[in-house]
Structure formats: structure tokens, C-alpha cells
Amino acid sequence: MSKLRLNTPSLSIIIPSYNQSEYLEQTLLSIKEQNYPDIELIVIDGGSTDRSVELIKRYSDYISYWVSEPDEGQVDAINKGLKRATGEWVAWQNSDDIYLPGAFSSFVEKLVACPRADVITGNISLIDSTGHVIREVHYIKPTYNGLRSEGMVVANQAAFWRRALHDKIGYLDIQYCCSFDYEWFLRLTQKYKVCHIHGTLGALRQHGEAKSSKLTSVFAEENRKILRGREPGAVMIRFYQ
Asked: Would you state the pLDDT for residue 232?
């Protein structure tokens, strides 16, 4: 552990949240239980009307900053959190998804092995509403050409990047409500060095209220828009959904 602490960069995790109290506590615990020594946890809640604020207050001693107020949706919430972040590295985790045990240690170990990395990614599990694993999703190192030709072969549930990159390429594009992460990782991989961990770092939850379950046509249309001018050929649309 001492070696890990010596090489531990400050890490900011943003949780965008809106009426996800059924899963939010699991998300918070998945971060808290990493026992990461230099963590900044930021929760941006969109004015939830369920038990979300109660849960946030329960963990307020661990949360560096939180707010519950109306916003313009998930992308706006993530951007608000990223703009507040002070960590050397940043990531966001959706309020119905989780990090797996040891994810942050694996991130640090990879960074020690790959100190010039700008982005570090890993694999994910797909889980159901109860947290049971549906299947594993294993990626190869994401590249710009790979994302253009194969679709979303990277997941925010298992991705970290240097906060300084936002000063160079901006924040998430608020014109997209579903495929904003696809557009973001295209920008990241086009210019910056990615290192991939051959291990599972996070889990994407599939349930009836998830965007990936309800808005498949919006994903497809946004992906087409994002790829205009970038098309290398046929594109698979988010094969893991």
C-alpha cells in the first residue's frame, strides 16, 4: 500500500444524478470502498424528488461537493462537476453504475507502468437491476480509428483521463443527450495517448429506465451525426447495449 500511495495522483469522480435513489447508494459505496487516499467525490443532482438527497446527505462527510438543483440534463451535470474538479485525473460514474473492487488500484498500477498516458481505460461487466452479472465486455485498447469503425469500444464506467485535457479540447458536448460519451472519447483518442487495462474496472447496469434501454433510436441518430465527416466505413452502433 505504501508504494501505491507514493504514486497516487489526486482523482476526482463526478456522479451526475437524478431520481436514481434505487441505485445511488451502491454507486457511492463502490467509490468509498476503494479506500483511495486522494479522492474528490462530486455529486451533481438535478433536483431529485425521490430519496436521492437523503442518501447524498448520509454520505456528505465523504463527498467533497454536492448540489441538488435543476439542470439541463446528464451532460450539463457532468460538465458542472468537471469544471469544479481539482484532481489531476478525472472520471464520471453514472448514478446507476458502479466501480468494481480494486478498480482505482488497477488504475494507479497502470499509470505507474504507463506514466505518459493521458487516458486509462479498462473492461466492464454488464449487470442487471439487482447487480447480478449478465455478461462481461472485454475491449482492446480504444483508438480513434477503432471508435470510428466499430462504435463505442470504450466505456466511461472504466475510464479515467487527465483533467488538464479539458483545457485543450473542452468539455462534453451538450447538444447530445445519449451519445455524448462517444463523441467525447473520439476527441480524446484522436489526439492523446491511451493505455488499456486488461481487467474489469466497472459495471454498466441495464434496467428498464436506463437510456440504453429506452432511447435506442436517439443513440443511433446521434451516432450518425457524430460520425458525419469521420466515416471510415460501416459502423456498429453500441454493440454492448
From this structure: 62
